[in-house]
User: What shape does this take?
Amino acid sequence: MDKRNMVSRLQAFRPAKRRLVQLYAALLHNAYLRGFIEGKIYEGKAKALCVPGLNCYSCPGATGACPLGALQNALAAAGHRAGWYVLGMILLFGVMLGRTVCGWLCPMGLIQDLLHKLPVPKIRKGKATRALSWVKYVILAVFVIALPLYYALARGLPLPAFCKYICPAGTLEGAAGHLANPANASMFEMLGRVFTSKWVILVAILLACVFCYRSFCRFLCPLGAIYGLFNRFSLVGVQTDPDRCNGCGACLRVCEMDIRRVGDRECIQCGKCAEACSRGAISLKAGKITLKGPETGGEKKPARSRKILFRSAALALLCLVLVWFNFLDPSVRQHENLPAESAAVVGYEPGQRLADFSLPCYDGSEFRLADTRGKVVFINRWATWCTPCVVELPYFEELYKAHPEDVAMIVIHPEMTVEDPEAFLADLSLTMPCATDGAGDPVKEIVGGTATLPQTIVLNRRGEVVYNSVSSVSSEKLEALYREAAE
Amino acid sequence: MSHTGKGKFLPVLLAVLCTALAVILAAGAVLIYLDGAPRRAENPLENIYTAEKAGQVMTAALPVFLALLCVLAACLILDVKPPKGKGETGGGKASPASGKLKHETWIRIAVFAAAALLIIAGIANGSVQDVLAKAISICTECVGLG
Assistant: This one.
């Protein structure tokens, strides 16, 4: 192999411009790198901002809210407040970018593209894949819209059905992302049927992506289905010059998506067609600015100095974002400044004694932990938007009623609420003490709580922790915990 | 290289290894669940999954994963390209139109204005706080933890 041949082979490994943009976007979506090291999620206020791509907001690195998860939760909360903000953000991303998000920005798209690089025999597009491309609209209608709405309005349960039953981003980034960190070893306790089914779905989707280009994106992704509706008028997108096009079909042949024509609802605006068009009829444009392909309308190619300036600005922005989210964000610093001594004196681990606290309950009484000595104490952290939390509340009530003299109990909602927890609980007619945590969630700190819900803490008669776990509990498990703590 | 023996053999071998790896990972999880579920039914405090059991599955998958990496390296060194599958390579009619709408600018402006209004309405009615409240917490069931 001569030197020139070797150089050309090495050049073939140089990442394409689109791949670099995808990597850049994936880093921006997951800029909280400390989360991967510490096994926690970012809890700053910047997370209220939706990101364009499918990126689970429970991923340790996630810096923004997943639009699809946020949309389902908005629909699940439709009974009390309309989710205008999420709808507005999705419309904004749609009208600005359309499915350019899928082709250039989505972290799941990057993973699928990389898997498809494996040189195995490929399944090419055809009538079957075109038919399958409609499945994502069914998933959008059923799992993203109908089921969350039905459960919210008819059964009073928040159910983000796509996240719970299908989303591979949630399993890969959220579940596997946390389980891979030794700091979250206790999370293995809660794994069961839900995890098994979602893990199998994830593995099947990733395997399918090796053989069939962007299987998830083409057949299953409801976010792509939404953005596809904007493709025909989005600001950024591929455009064809009808004067130059001779209808040879090279664009359709080179495209691996199930498009019928350039720029339709299936097009992810990757720009491969612009490279393949020998007539220079296709270009990727942002309004009148050409991003890829031949310039039209007499515009000039950007100077080299402008390109360098643009790349430097992009790099500077990335550095700024990384430094901000990992070191400068006030919420991260606040977390750092928590007094370490308090955990050393009183603890929340099994065998340690929980620090005293008191909270005003919704029924007007005051719950004081110090007053519960001699009883088995159950503390449950829950939230109105958390399905397993809501499902298990009657189990706590059942236990509370079964042992009225021997059990002290309180269910605590975090300070930040989506809907009024007191009104929410009124419908359930609970008799056990219920309260909302104080400003800054002091009880969460006392019980060693994290962002993960539900959390159950069980204390024995001496006030010592015998169980502290973030997992759902069944009626049987609560009874078993009571017996263990009462011994 | 793609038309030689190695050019056909290595992609098929890689496909087999990918499938085997996926089967081990998926079947491993199912077996752990089938093994642990009856025990949890008897004792609700029993764990179905443990780090050790997950480690066993990963250990079983490791040789396949390493073999996959070796074959992938061989493919890269020998410049093996994936063989083309059966089926359409393009299909459909080439369209001179880009699929863009006639009055796209006006539609764009209208949708953009609607998006801006919805975001402002969302800030006013507190739905931003709803997004934040959910985004800074982990619902274990929603991410598949259980």
